[in-house]
Design brief:
This protein is an alpha+beta fold. It is built from 14 helices and 39 strands.
Length: 789
C-alpha cells in the first residue's frame, strides 16, 4: 500500500511520499483507496480458532501415452482449527493444459463438478457458501494461473479436490519435455485495487519469505508409455527415482525426503531411439464430430555462413524479483550473447525495473571495448524495484534503428507482471520494426508471458531455470536466428474432408520441432494430408496417408486438445481486455460444449448437505512459497509494503540538466530501496520510523550546488553515448559520517565510479533523529547523467 506525489519544479526537485508500517506485513493488508494489487508477506497469527494453512498437500499423477500427457492433480484441504473455513488457493498449470473435469470428495461422498458460465458458477458457489453447504469453485485467472475456492471446510474435515487436464508434448531437436509448474510467482502490479477487474485480484496474495519451505507437501509420479524405445529419461529439477519397466516404458517417482520441493517447476525430459519423433496422424470419432491431429517433422537445419548484420536490443529485467539467483542467470546469458556478437553487429542494452536505464541513445558497434563496457554495465546490477515492462518495451521501440540491419529485441525477465495482454498487443503492433524473442529466467517463470511474447512476436521462448543452462540457451538462440528451418508453408488435403483447422495459417518454422495441425473431419477416414514449404536445400514436401486403422477410442483427448487450441488462438493472446461479446460467447460456448475451463467458464461442485448451519466462515488465502531462487525483494519491495501516511525524502539531483521523463520514475515499488526514513538495515523485517531524516548540510539546494560543482561527466560515457541514473545507497552514521557506499543500480561508462567518488567527497551529513537522538539510517541518492543540457 502506498500513496505518492510527484511535484516537479524548475530546480527538478522530486518529493516522494512513503512510510513503512508494521501493519504492512500482516496477512490482511490495510484497506485503502490507494492500495494496489500487490503480493504481501504472510504472518502467522496467534488465533487458535482459525487454521490459516488449510492446504495440506498437492500431488500430481502423470500418464504420458505417446505424445499426449494426462494429469490428475489432487489437493487435500484439512481444517485443524475450530472455525468453519473458506480456503483460497492460487496455483499454476501449463499454458497448454486443457482442464476437463473436477471432483470434490468429502468423506465417502464424491461430488462431480459441472462446467458453467463463470458468473453463474461464482453465483452458485457464493449461494452454497451462505447456505452452509461445502462447495468448491475452480476459476481461470490466466491461461496458466488457476484459483481454487473451497467453502465450508468444517473443523476436522478432510476435503479432496481433484482436477484433470491433458496436454500435447511437442519435441524439439528430438527432446520431449513435460513441465509441471508448482507455484505462481509474485506478480508486480500498479493497478489500484478498487478499480481492478475481478480476474486480476488474485495478485494480492500472501507469500512466505525467501528460503522458507512450502507449507504443504508436494508429490509427483509419472508413467511414460512412449510406444517406442526410450533413452535418456531424466529430471534435473527434482530428485526422482527413474526406472525402466521395458524399452518403451518408464516410471518416475519423487524420492522420499523431497516432500517440500513444490517451489520450482518440475521438468521431465526424454528422447526416443535415434531421436525419432511421433510424426504422423491421430484420429478420433464421436457420434457428432470427428477430430484429427497431424504432426509433421520439418527438415534438419543446414549451416548458414552468410548471416546479414543484426542490430540487437537487449531488454533486461533488474527488478526486485530478479534479485540474486535470477539476475545472476541473466548476466550469464547476456555475457554469452553479447560476448559472441560479430564485429559487423550493433547492439544496445536497456535495464528496467520501475524506470529504464539505457546504455546508449543508439546502438553501438560490437567492438571488444563496447562489449566489455556493456558487460560491466550489466554486472553492476543487483536487482530492486517493480517490473514496469511496458515502458521498457516502448523505450526500446522509440530507439532509432540501424539502416540495412535486421533488428532483434531480446527480452530477459521472470515475467512476474499482470499486464501480459498489453505486452502482447504492443509486440503485435510493432512486428514490422523488429523480431521479438523472450528468455524466461528462473525456476518458476511466468510461462504465459514468455510464450505469449514469442507467439505475438513470431519468435521462440527460451526458459533458463538454472545457471548451467545459460550457455546452452544462448547457443540455441544464436542457432535459432541464423535462418528458418522451413518457410512458405502450406497444407493441402486430398480426399480428406476437413474443417475448423487450427492454426489457420502456419508461420515460418525456426526451431527443429514438428508442425502441429489440429482439426475436425467428416465422411470417411481416407485421403492424404500434404505439407509443402522451402528449406535451406530447396523445396520440401511431406505426405501423411489417412488410414481408418488409425482411428482409436484411446485418442479421446483430441477433442479437448482441439478445443484448447481454438481457445488459445481466439482468446489467450487476444487484444488487451477488448474481447468483444461475440468472441466471449464463442469461447464460453467452447468451454460449455467440451467441458473445459476457460476465462469465461468455471467448474463448480456443491454438496447437497447443509453442514454449516450458521453460514459463517473464516476466509483464508493459502500462503505460497517464493519460487526457488527468488528473493524477498519480489514481495517486500512491492507497493503493498507502503501505507498512505507520508514523509519526505531526498530528491534526485543531476550532473547536467535533463528532462522530466528521464528524472521521474514510475516505479512505485522502487521506494523500498530508497528509504531514508528507516532506522537500521533495509530488510524485510519490521521497520521503525525516524522522526527526521538525514540531510546534506544546507539542505537540498546546497546538495544540488555541491554536485553541480563537483560531478564530472566521464569521457567514456560521453563517447559511448551513455546516460541515465546511477542509484547509490549509503549509511549516514550517528555522527554524520558516510559509510557502506554501494551502487545499487549503475549505468557503466565510468558514471558509477564518478558518482561514488563525489559522494565520498561530501564529508559529514546531518544525521537522522529518533526521539531527539541521532541514529544511523540508510540513504539512497539517484544521480542522473544526461547528454542533454
Amino acid at each position: 500500500m502506498f500513496s505518492e506525489g510527484y511535484r516537479i519544479c524548475k530546480s527538478l526537485l522530486v518529493v516522494i511520499m512513503c512510510i513503512i508500517t508494521q501493519n504492512a506485513f500482516t496477512q490482511t493488508p490495510e484497506t485503502n483507496e490507494d492500495k494496489t494489487l500487490s503480493p504481501y508477506f504472510f504472518v502467522q497469527s496467534n488465533d487458535s480458532e482459525t487454521d490459516q494453512l488449510p492446504l495440506k498437500s498437492t500431488r500430481a499423477e502423470v500418464n504420458i501415452a505417446g505424445i499426449i500427457a494426462d494429469v490428475k492433480v489432487t489437493q487435500e484441504y484439512k481444517n485443524e482449527g475450530k472455525s468453519p473455513l473458506e480456503a483460497i488457493y492460487v496455483f499454476p498449470a501449463s499454458t497448454r493444459a486443457a482442464v476437463y473435469s473436477m471432483t470434490m470428495t468429502i468423506g465417502e461422498r464424491v461430488i462431480k463438478a459441472v462446467i458453467k458460465e463463470r458468473g453463474q458458477a461464482r453465483k452458485d458457489y457464493e449461494q452454497a457458501k451462505q447456505q452452509g453447504k461445502s462447495a468448491s469453485l475452480l476459476e481461470q485467472q490466466r491461461p496458466n494461473v488457476f484459483q481454487m475456492n473451497v467453502a465450508n471446510i468444517m473443523p476436522g474435515d478432510l476435503i479432496k479436490v481433484e482436477m484433470n487436464y491433458t496436454e500435447l508434448l511437442v519435441p524439439e531437436n528430438g527432446m520431449y519435455e513435460f513441465v509441471y509448474p508448482t507455484v505462481v510467482g509474485p506478480r508486480y502490479s500498479n493497478q489500484p485495487a478498487e478499480t481492478a477487474p475481478e480476474n486480476d485480484k488474485w495478485v494480492a496474495n500472501p507469500y512466505t519469505k525467501e528460503g522458507q519451505s512450502p507449507m504443504y507437501t508436494f508429490d509427483i509420479k509419472l508413467n511414460l508409455n512412449a510406444g517406442m524405445s526410450v533413452k535418456d529419461a531424466r529430471c534435473d529439477t527434482h530428485d526422482m527415482d527413474i526406472r525402466y519397466e521395458g524399452a518403451d516404458k518408464v516410471i518416475a517417482a519423487l524420492k522420499p525426503g523431497n516432500e517440500f520441493t513444490g517451489n520450482r517447476d518440475f521438468i521431465f525430459q526424454y528422447r526416443l531411439r535415434g531421436d525419432a519423433i511421433h510424426s504422423g496422424l491421430l484420429l478420433y470419432r464421436e457420434a457428432s464430430e470427428n477430430f484429427f491431429l497431424a504432426m509433421v517433422q520439418p527438415p534438419q537445419r543446414i549451416a548458414i555462413n552468410q548471416i546479414p548484420p543484426r542490430d540487437y536490443v537487449f531488454i533486461v529485467d533488474v527488478s526486485g524479483s530478479m534479485s540474486g539467483f535470477p539476475l545472476d542467470i541473466s548476466k550469464k546469458v547476456l555475457r554469452d550473447l553479447i560476448g559472441k556478437l560479430r564485429p559487423t553487429d550493433r547492439f544496445n542494452v536497456i535495464l528496467f525495473a520501475g524506470a529504464s536505464n539505457l546504455m546508449s541513445p543508439q546502438s553501438i558497434p560490437a567492438t571488444q571495448a563496447n562489449i566489455n563496457n556493456a558487460i560491466q554495465f550489466i554486472d553492476r546490477q543487483e536487482g530492486g524495484g517493480g517490473t514496469e515492462l511496458l515502458p521498457a518495451l516502448q523505450k526500446a521501440l522509440s530507439l532509432q534503428g540501424t539502416e540495412d540491419y535486421s533488428r532483434t529485441f531480446v527480452i530477459l525477465t521472470d515475467g512476474y507482471v499482470n499486464i501480459e495482454k498489453e505486452a502482447f498487443d504492443l509486440v503485435r503492433q510493432n512486428l514490422g520494426k523488429a523480431n521479438f524473442f523472450a528468455f524466461g529466467i528462473g525456476s518458476s517463470v511466468n510461462r504465459y508471458l514468455i510464450e505469449g511474447l514469442a507467439h505475438a512476436g513470431s519468435g521462440e521462448p527460451f526458459i533458463v531455470e538454472k545457471p548451467d543452462k545459460a550457455a546452452e540457451m544462448a547457443a540455441r538462440f544464436r542457432k535459432y536466428i541464423e535462418s528458418p528451418v522451413l518457410t512458405d508453408i502450406s497444407v493441402s488435403y486430398q480426399g480428406f474432408q476437413v474443417y475448423d483447422v487450427e492454426p489457420a495459417t502456419i508461420p515460418d518454422v525456426f526451431a527443429e520441432r514438428p508442425v502441429i495441425i489440429f482439426g475436425k473431419w467428416k465422411g470417411a477416414a481416407v485421403g492424404k494430408i500434404r505439407l509443402t514449404g522451402k528449406s535451406g536445400t530447396g523445396s520440401f514436401s511431406e505426405e501423411i496417408s489417412v488410414d481408418p486403422l488409425k482411428l482409436s477410442a484411446s485418442n479421446s483427448a483430441l477433442k479437448y486438445l482441439w478445443a484448447r487450441k481454438r481457445i488459445q488462438m481466439l482468446d489467450d493472446y487476444s487484444k488487451n481486455g477488448n474481447a468483444d461479446q461475440k468472441l466471449k460467447e464463442e469461447v464460453t460456448g467452447l468451454g460449455l460444449k467440451y467441458n473445459l475451463l476457460t476465462a469465461y467458464t468455471s467448474f463448480v461442485a456443491i454438496d447437497s448437505n447443509v453442514r454449516n448451519k450458521s453460514g459463517q466462515v473464516e476466509t483464508v488465502k493459502q500462503p505460497l512459497p517464493l519460487p526457488e531462487g527468488v528473493s524477498n525483494n519480489a514481495v517486500g519491495g512491492s507497493p503493498a509494503a507502503y501505507s498512505s501516511r507520508s514523509v519526505k525524502f531526498a530528491a534526485p539531483v543531476m550532473a547536467e540538466e535533463t528532462t522530466t521523463d528521464e528524472l521521474v520514475s514510475s516505479d512505485k515499488s522502487e521506494l523500498k530501496s530508497k528509504q531514508v526514513s528507516v532506522y537500521g538495515k533495509a530488510s524485510n523485517d519490521v521497520y521503525h520510523m525516524v522522526e527526521k531524516t538525514p540531510e546534506f548540510p544546507g539542505g537540498q539546494e546546497a546538495l544540488n550546488t555541491f554536485l553541480k560543482q563537483n560531478l564530472q561527466y566521464p569521457k567514456t560515457a560521453k563517447e559511448m553515448g551513455i546516460s541515465g541514473r546511477v542509484i547509490v545507497q549509503f549509511m549516514v552514521n550517528e555522527n554524520g559520517d558516510i559509510s557502506d557506499i554501494k551502487v545499487i543500480r549503475g549505468i557503466g561508462g565510468g558514471c558509477d565510479e564518478e558518482a561514488v567518488r563525489v559522494i565520498k567527497k561530501m564529508g559529514k551529513w546531518v544525521p537522522a533523529k529518533q526521539n531527539g537522538k541521532a541514529v544511523k539510517s540508510l540513504f539512497t541518492l539517484p544521480i542522473t547523467f544526461s547528454l542533454k543540457g
